[in-house]
Design brief:
heterodimer; A: alpha+beta; six-stranded mixed sheet; four-stranded antiparallel sheet; 22 helices; elongated; B: 246 residues; alpha/beta; Rossmann fold; globular; disordered N terminus
């Protein structure tokens, strides 16, 4: 074995004083990266799997002569829950063909197959609605996106209402179609946005994880360089040590993901919880994580150690770092301009690039802003705590910003979404009246039949008509019973109130909210891990002078308070303006319109600021025991 | 040189003070008697008696790992002895709590370490001013006093430089200025010239001893270097945790 490889492995096994804490912090931070990367990959693949199983419903060819079937989607409500009913007519004598996914056979007219969750609601009037004593069968997992799906597939005749050519049903080219489901496509776009937004925080965390162990390594490696080790040997030793730590971190992250996946599967995205097998990682995902995370980690560590390998004395003596340039501010313009220009195009990739550039600008401008704030604090400080924090920020703004970069970027995400996401739509309908749309000329006949059926059932109603719709006011709160009475009166429609129609649309907005919450959760986890790793790294960095200060009678509390202040100042001083920058980017994309309605944006903003600050305070405290121990004696 | 331990340790504080005064004629600013310190099973100090007068420089010498730095830490209140007493200007200090000893070190003692241990991000004047600011002195006054002190150690032109921009000797002068700026009664130095060449080391120890004793402060220097010890008034040799005549 190469002696440097051997030495690197020995350093992992016997890390020396303070090294165990550094190695644990590095492994922990890498584990968080691996967990999040696995979650993002597995989540994206899971959405694709979910979409594939129901993709046949969306695989259309528009040709009635060759289509295997015609499909008509109907919005229904059962026991107050939104249900999707698919009326399916088999075309062109394909009744003996293989059935659609999840069905035991091709449904004949009058047969009804239900998802298991909907089958549980059979007693809520479904027997009367479908005129069957029992459902024909149950749709298996192979035909469902989620175990919570409330779906019915009802066989109908090709010439029934909604299925004729004039009704323009959806013609299916085969049962094996895998066209992407609309809601899943929306979620995948959200995941892509999410990856664009958390990419830099994740990379930042990788660097942070590598940096923690590197802090311990710098002086040791500098000593090796001084002792005659070549640049290549020192880099190899670092790479081996970092690769081993990152590999263990990646394994821990994969184990963490596996342990957490049953909980992740409970997140009701895309209409319900996930089947666990959709989130189970394949062997190649494990391989990618086990290779990519250590490789990224090693690259980060080697970049961080560059100055040791080139100028070992520079590290030993702590030379002054180069100041950040104000030219960085110019980058702030690029993202919003690109979003304003591309916003009207609507293409996803350019938008992702625009958002990515804006996020990059925050990452690049952040250290400059920290430096400005640090200099201000150092200039105006009258006490040791503020002076130490200010000098520390001004001296190495990159190091000060790195741990909180993820949290600051989450401010960008929040600011962006607070104005750009249409959180508050689709919740303003009322339950005052049912409505049915009718063809011209049928309105009066439908209205008459409605009155007749309701009267026979003992309900008092007021039925009004317009040119193509019938509105039904009924003096009852038992809307399900009214719906059952009027079921199939217009065969391809179910009577719904405005609020019930809103409930169907609300799923998409629920996905949005959950998606945003998940995204911010990801960023917060990244930020917390990054802040904690940074705090440990700073504590290790400061241990020698802190020990000297404590021996000289400077209370530990002064050192700890200055460290906490140095962690919080970048979050407040840079994070809050970045919220405004995110909002500016959101406005640039929406053409100056505030799309978010109601108080959702304000709640999101307030929540973000409070959670962010608590997170920094808690995660920043991770350095305290390390500093206390490392500076003792 | 050492002095005899008292026979009884079961006396009242007033009696102890009287005994201390008798035993440390002329009046010692710093005295330790019967100092014992264990590190688990290992004996760090095995009953050391020592006294230092104001304006006196004491060199503590001896082989590595025999208790020199332990003695310095015990006398300075960084460590508490398992047995024995430490007196500073007539006040027993080994029984003080951690917070009180921290204040004591800051206000009445000064420290110089081998590798200066200055804060890399602070310029020289703020490094020196920091202990004063911790004590509540305004920044303007603290930095003013720090610059005066830096001028006295020959660094008036380097007040705005950071440790990374100073030579080893200059950085150690900053450390000396930091140790003296609070007008301490005793300055402790642990191998203060260990990282310096002979010429610079000689300049630094001359400065340390000269500046401290000129102010009436006692100096306790732990060193392996005979040249450093030669610049002190007296040498105390520690071997196996005890005072040795060898």
């Amino acid at each position: 074995m190469n002696p440097m490889t051997d030495l690197g492995l020995r350093f992992v096994r016997r890390p020396g004083p303070g090294g165990r804490a550094a190695n644990l912090a590095a492994v922990g931070a890498t584990a968080v990266v691996a967990l999040l990367v696995t979650f993002l990959i597995a989540g994206s693949l899971g959405l694709t799997h979910r979409s594939d199983r129901i993709g046949w419903r969306s695989t259309l060819n528009g040709d009635s002569k060759t289509a295997v079937g015609a499909l008509h989607e109907v919005q229904d409500m059962v026991a107050g829950k939104p249900v999707t009913r698919f009326d399916l007519a088999i075309l062109n004598d394909k009744t003996n063909a293989a059935p659609p996914p999840g069905l035991p056979r091709v449904p004949k007219p009058g047969e009804v197959f239900l998802s298991p969750k909907l089958a549980e609601l059979w007693g809520s009037g479904l027997s009367d609605r479908y005129k069957l004593p029992e459902p024909t069968g149950v749709i298996s997992n192979a035909g469902l996106s989620s175990p919570d799906d409330l779906v019915a597939i009802r066989g109908v005749a090709p010439n029934s209402a909604g299925m004729t050519a004039s009704d323009h049903p959806d013609y299916l080219e085969s049962w094996r179609g895998t066209a992407i489901d609309g809601r899943m496509a929306f979620l995948l776009v959200m995941v892509a946005f999410g990856i664009a937004l958390v990419l830099f925080p994740l990379l930042s965390l990788v660097g942070q994880a590598a940096g923690v162990a590197a802090k311990r390594r710098e002086h040791r490696l500098a000593a090796l360089r001084l002792a005659g080790a070549t640049r290549g040997q020192v880099l190899l030793l670092s790479a081996v040590e970092q690769a081993v730590l990152a590999f263990f971190g990646a394994i821990a992250g994969l184990i963490g993901y596996t342990v957490l996946s049953p909980l992740i599967a409970r997140i009701p995205l895309g209409g319900g919880r996930w089947y666990l097998h959709d989130l189970t990682v394949r062997w190649w995902v494990i391989l990618v994580v086990l290779i990519a995370v250590p490789v990224l980690s090693v690259i980060s560590a080697l970049i961080g150690l560059g100055r040791v390998s080139i100028t070992p004395l520079g590290v030993v003596r702590g030379q002054t770092r180069k100041a950040a340039s104000a030219l960085r501010l110019g980058l702030l313009v690029v993202g919003p301009v690109m979003l304003a220009v591309l916003g009207t195009g609507g293409a996803v990739l350019p938008l992702l690039i625009g958002i990515g550039l804006a996020a990059l600008a925050v990452r690049v401008v952040g250290p400059f802003a920290v430096q400005v704030i640090g200099r201000f604090l150092a200039r105006t400080a009258n006490g040791p705590v503020v002076l130490l924090a200010g000098r520390r920020l001004a001296d190495d703004p990159k190091a000060a910003f790195r741990p909180v970069a993820a949290l600051v970027l989450s401010g960008f995400v929040t600011g962006f979404l607070a104005l750009f996401m249409p959180f508050g739509l689709a919740q303003d309908g009322t339950d005052a009246a049912f409505s049915l749309h009718t063809d011209q000329g049928q309105t009066v006949a439908v209205a008459k039949e409605v009155s007749h059926r309701l009267s026979e059932a003992g309900f008092t109603s007021e039925v009004t008509t317009s040119e193509e719709s019938v509105d039904i006011h009924v003096s009852t709160t038992d809307r399900e019973k009214v719906r059952t009475i009027l079921y199939d009166l217009v065969p391809d429609q179910v009577p719904l109130t405005d609020a019930e129609k809103d409930a169907h649309e609300a799923g998409v907005y629920l996905d949005m909210r959950l998606g945003v919450a998940l995204l911010l959760g990801l960023v917060f986890v990244t930020g917390a891990a990054s802040t904690a790793a940074g705090a440990v790294g700073t504590a290790l960095d400061q241990s020698a002078p802190a020990r000297a200060l404590r021996r000289s009678g400077i209370p530990l509390s002064v050192i700890e308070r200055s460290a906490r202040l140095a962690a919080v100042v970048p979050v407040i001083g840079v994070g809050l303006p970045v919220v405004g920058f995110g909002a500016l980017c959101g406005l640039a994309l929406s053409g100056g319109h505030i799309l978010t309605q109601g108080s959702s944006g304000a709640i999101l903003l307030a929540g973000q600021v409070i959670v962010g600050l608590i997170l920094v305070a808690v995660a920043g405290a991770a350095g305290a025991p390390v500093l206390r121990k490392a500076s003792a004696g | 040189m050492s002095f005899q331990s008292p026979h009884s340790t079961q006396s009242t504080p007033i009696q102890q003070q009287a005994q201390y005064a008798q035993l440390t004629q002329p009046a010692a600013v710093l005295a330790g008697r019967g100092l014992v310190k264990y590190y688990g099973e290992v004996v760090g100090l095995a009953g050391v008696d020592v006294a230092v007068q104001s304006g006196e420089a004491l060199a503590v010498m001896g082989p590595s790992g025999n208790g020199k730095t332990t003695l310095l830490h015990v006398l300075a209140g960084i460590l508490t002895p398992d047995q024995g007493e430490v007196w500073l200007a007539g006040e027993r200090v080994d029984q003080l709590g951690d917070a009180a000893r921290t204040v004591l070190r800051r206000r009445r003692l000064g420290f110089v370490f081998q590798d200066n241990q200055l804060l890399a991000e602070l310029p020289a004047d703020e490094n020196v001013a920091l202990p004063l600011m911790v004590d509540g002195i305004s920044r303007r006054d603290a930095v003013g006093r720090a610059r005066t002190m830096l001028a006295q150690v020959g660094l008036s032109a380097e007040v705005g430089r950071r440790p990374g921009e100073l030579s080893g000797g200059q950085a150690q002068r900053v450390a000396i200025a930091r140790a003296l700026v609070g007008e301490p009664q005793v300055v402790f130095a642990d191998e203060p010239t260990g990282a310096l060449d002979a010429t610079t080391g000689a300049q630094v120890i001359d400065l340390l001893v000269g500046a401290a004793t000129h102010r009436g402060a006692a100096v306790v220097v732990v060193t392996h270097d005979d040249a450093v010890a030669a610049r002190c008034n007296r040498i105390l040799r520690i071997v196996d945790g005890r005072v040795s005549d060898r």
